[in-house]
Amino acid sequence: MSHLSERPEKPVVGVSLPHESAFQHVTGTALYTDDLVQRTKDVLHAYPVQVMKAHGRITAIRTEPALAVPGVVRVLTGADVPGVNDAGMKHDEPLFPDEVMFHGHAVAWVLGETLEAARLGAAAVEVELDELPSLITLQDAIAAESFHGARPLMTHGDIDAGFADSAHVITGEFQFSGQEHFYLETHAALAQVDENGQIFIQSSTQHPSETQEIVSHVLGVPAHEVTVQCLRMGGGFGGKEMQPHGFAAIAALGAKLTGRPVRFRFNRTQDLTMSGKRHGFNATWKIGFDAEGRIQALDATLTADGGWSLDLSEPVLARALCHIDNTYWIPNARVAGRIAKTNTVSNTAFRGFGGPQGMLVIEDILGRCAPQLGLDPMELRERNFYQPGQGQTTPYGQPVTQAERISTVWQQVQDDAGIADRGREIAAFNAAHPHTKRGLAITGIKFGISFNLTAFNQGGALVLIYKDGSVLINHGGTEMGQGLHTKMMQVAATTLGIPLHKVRLAPTRTDKVPNTSATAASSGADLNGGAIKNACEQLRERLLLVAATQLGANASDVRIVEGVARALGSDKELAWDDLVHTAYFQRVQLSAAGYYRTEGLHWDAKSFRGSPFKYFAYGAAATEVEVDGFTGAYRIRRVDIVHDVGESLSPMIDIGQVEGGFVQGAGWLTLEDLRWDTSDGPHRGRLLTQAASTYKLPSFSEMPEEFNVRLLENATEEGAVYGSKAVGEPPLMLAFSVREALRQAAAAFGPSGVSVDLASPATPEAVYWAIEEARRGDASRLGHVVNGVGAGGHVNGHVDGEIRTDAEALSGA
Asked: Taking every annotated instance into account, which residue ranges of this chain make up the domain Aldehyde oxidase/xanthine dehydrogenase a/b hammerhead (predicted)?
């Protein structure tokens, strides 16, 4: 076992512990960014001046009326920016734009003594606009050929030969929606200037170092004059990876110009209408199967809805392409990607970061095609799994390690869920109930862990031991409720060999650990855990030398376990506190900076080939649903999950992440329906679902009635911190099983073997239309052949897939 993975005697990792802030969370004493306003004197409040048009060129901004409003101190415009007027890393997101690019775009900001004064001041600002045509939907952009950013192309094998060898070729088109992050805490920042003119920003951000970088660009000052701290976030889910930077820059600019602290926080409607979402996608595809239903070739084009600027759309698209294979061996593939430019908010990172979109495409294809191939969907999926020992690689060229775990978790879920018996029970139920049907589906996942950009795969830490034996750890990861800080404290305690109560964790800030990567890509524990372990190992090695002298032994024979140093074969002991005290008086350094970089990664974005991921996380879920044939309403009766987290650092935290990820994924796939005004009226481009009253989120009523989650056992991951695997993003994709179970239930209303199309999100309305399609029994109809290949079309989220066999093609059918 590798040094990084090996666990010492009596480790603190692997113990089920509550979240380190759980007590503060439930008692209301946990502080968030906006709570700090009450502890800060003379705070000004920032409020956006929004233009409620989808697209237009600004011809005039008059701020004088705002300055006449009592309590208004200043109006910030582009003329006030001393540095670069841009909030993005691609230099396509002006902080103060000359052109309105989406409905609700902020063009200026008002600073007021109170929030109400700032709001009234913003309402008084006069903006003149030369309105321009707008593209609201993804279909609009595709039709207008409105694209921006890179257009990656992933190829593998011989696509033409693959289709030539296919007994069945099916084509189709599939469009699916994005998703609102809807974190509990909206975007917030508080900026202050000290007596030396340096900026200190409290920000609800997943990426403090990049917030620091953007603020320094906007202010035109070096990074060492800007410090960013993140206490904790009330949720992030990727929505606070890139988007907080510009908002923090507004607060910092206001503080710099007025000399007073400036606070910014969106209300819920502002957050929903001004911040980006998960990218919606359009996929056109052609797939070939042999006579046994094994995939021979896939040709697809994925179009992501990037919104008005690039943000993180390029890496999101790249990860979508890298995950279109999911758990399936595709010997010949050609997958193209492109990013549509629309006049909506700039879409951004969201848990899974494009992976869910790519995986959804192949899962939808298999669920759609299985009845047309005369196969049970579960059997079709199994036949196409990656197989161990076959030398199979992903379409981008990375070997699939631990491929046996795909089948292992799949079989364990079948056993745990009693699939065979329940399948018979469901068939009997459906036969006896003409107006209510049940469906049961299993889906699996293979999710790559690491940032696609190799340079981001590094982490840092600073660990301090004080004379009394207490330990303070700093690392570059941010806490958004996922339990990262809890795990990092466990890693530190394990590495030093001390009880957990000896360890405290400081808030994440850029003047303690510099140049950090975002807490994203499920890499928080891997990168920061490796860095903390490295720092603690440096300290432990120094202390072992001190202990060896005190115990009269060689340092290599000394162990520190549960806060006591002992030499092998000796009864002598030295308590941790005494050891640290002795080390101090021997002038031994009691602080260490740790560093970790993920080894073995390489990626060529131009050729779209390489091994961008350290390892793959695997999982499988079985879901049973019940659907009402009159309304399409449904309930989730039971969910069984087996998920691979390696050797868990903190099992209770990990199980919570699996449960939460699954429910959030089910929300995306079945409930959360983003809608914009696409009319040509005065409100064109307005987000219609801008509150919890119109945007349906999962609640207790959507939770599975029976929810069983098990972590894969004996699953140590070589080369990862204490043998663990990432857990943040992968479980979200287990929710594919909900959508596929709904497809099965809808199909049960029609004749045997009917192929059912299902929109995404599969709202009750969408399920009802799928039921109607199944009742007609026409969803699996054969289409005409165009150039020897069936053509497919798409209308309003529905797929008209068509199939042909070689015999039909030869006969001219």
From this structure: 27-133
